[in-house]
């Protein structure tokens, strides 16, 4: 069921996309030494419209059931959290007729819809020409923007990210997996290290093995891979907390994530422990 928040969120993303495209054209014209007053006016008008819609979103967000929680977290501003919530709120499944957070019986279902649930042990990816996605690319994109905002704010969720990063680092080290810096260029799979060679060099100058791009070999994992795993774990936990806060505020049934209900895990984060501003 569409609400004002989901409606304004959808319009804002469309206007923002149009404003960026128009701004890119204006920049292209300027590089050619050309001036187009109509394009300049469009950029100005679209920017003003975007700001107006942002005001509407802020007003709707402040009356949302999740606002008492999100408003106490550093980095959960309108541009990030409100859009995530707006996308979820505007979702309706024809198979069940249910919409918004009511459509997701468990946090695991919401994770899957957000593209954060593993498929065959790996992160779900979009392939060219693929149809019938099981998740919302828009929601996943906005969640990653939200995560960036949370990490920049250096609040409680940044601390959770560091905790997750340490968890994966220790796990790989315990399993004997070597964590190496993500190579910026050519990589030797035998030496398991980056080689500083000209782009035209095909073979490793030390062992003669054929050089390749960024590809992990058995017993080796790139540092960037570990960082992304920690980020995914962090934003999944945030989404779990959002699910719990939202459904509890509406009096909907609550169930633990799959990892707790079936996977042997024993603890779930209390959303109200993961805030930066405490009640006085």
What would you note in describing this structure?
This protein is mainly α. It folds into 3 domains: about 1-65; about 65-175 and about 225-280, no CATH class; about 180-220, no CATH class. Helix content is about 50%, strand content about 5%. The strands form 3 sheets. It has a two-stranded antiparallel sheet with strand order 1-2. Strands 3-6 form a two-stranded parallel ribbon. A two-stranded antiparallel sheet has the order 4-5. The longest helix is centred in the N-terminal third of the chain and has 28 residues, at about 5-30. The mean pLDDT is about 85.
Largest sheet: 2 strands, antiparallel
- Name the helix and strand elements from N-terminus to C-terminus, one letter apiece: HHHHHEEHHEEEEHH
Approximate helicity band:
40-55%
Give me the side-by-side strand order of the main sheet. Answer: 1-2
Low-pLDDT stretches: none
Distance between the termini: 36 Å
Number of helices in the DSSP assignment: 9
- Judging from the principal axes of the Cα atoms, what is the shape? globular
Could you say how many structural domains there are in total?
3
Number of strands: 6
Q: Beta fraction of the residues?
A: 5-15%
For the residues shown, what is the average pLDDT?
86
Structural class: mainly alpha
Radius of gyration from CA coordinates:
23 Å
In a few lines, what is going on in this structure?
The protein has 280 residues and is mostly helical. The chain has 9 helices and 6 strands. The chain has helices spanning 4-31, 37-62, 67-70, 78-89, 107-113, 137-153, 156-174, 223-249, 258-261, and strands at 118-119, 122-123, 178-180, 187-188, 193-194, 220-222.
């Amino acid at each position: 069921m569409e609400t004002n928040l989901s409606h304004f969120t959808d319009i804002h993303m469309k206007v923002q996309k149009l404003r960026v495209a128009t701004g890119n054209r204006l920049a292209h014209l300027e590089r050619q030494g050309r001036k187009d007053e109509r394009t300049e006016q469009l950029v100005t008008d679209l920017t003003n419209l975007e700001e107006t819609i942002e005001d509407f979103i802020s007003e709707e967000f402040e009356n949302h059931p999740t606002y008492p929680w999100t408003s106490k977290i550093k980095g959960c501003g309108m541009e990030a959290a409100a859009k995530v919530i707006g996308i979820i709120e505007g979702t309706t499944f024809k198979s069940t007729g249910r919409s918004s957070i009511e459509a997701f019986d468990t946090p695991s279902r919401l994770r899957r819809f957000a593209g954060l649930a593993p498929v065959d042990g790996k992160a779900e990816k979009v392939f060219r020409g693929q149809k019938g996605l099981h998740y919302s690319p828009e929601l996943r994109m906005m969640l990653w923007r939200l995560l960036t905002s949370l990490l920049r704010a250096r609040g409680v969720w940044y601390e959770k990210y560091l905790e997750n990063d340490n968890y994966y680092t220790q796990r790989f080290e315990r399993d004997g997996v070597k964590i190496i810096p993500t190579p910026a260029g050519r990589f030797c799979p035998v030496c398991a290290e980056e080689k500083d060679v000209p782009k035209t060099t095909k073979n490793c100058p030390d062992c003669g093995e054929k050089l390749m791009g960024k590809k992990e070999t058995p017993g080796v994992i790139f540092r960037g891979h570990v960082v992304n795993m920690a980020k995914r774990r962090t934003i999944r936990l945030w989404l779990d907390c959002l699910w719990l806060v939202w459904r509890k505020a509406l009096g909907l049934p609550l169930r633990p994530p799959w990892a707790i209900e079936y996977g042997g895990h024993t603890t779930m984060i209390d959303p109200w422990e993961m805030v930066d501003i405490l009640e006085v």
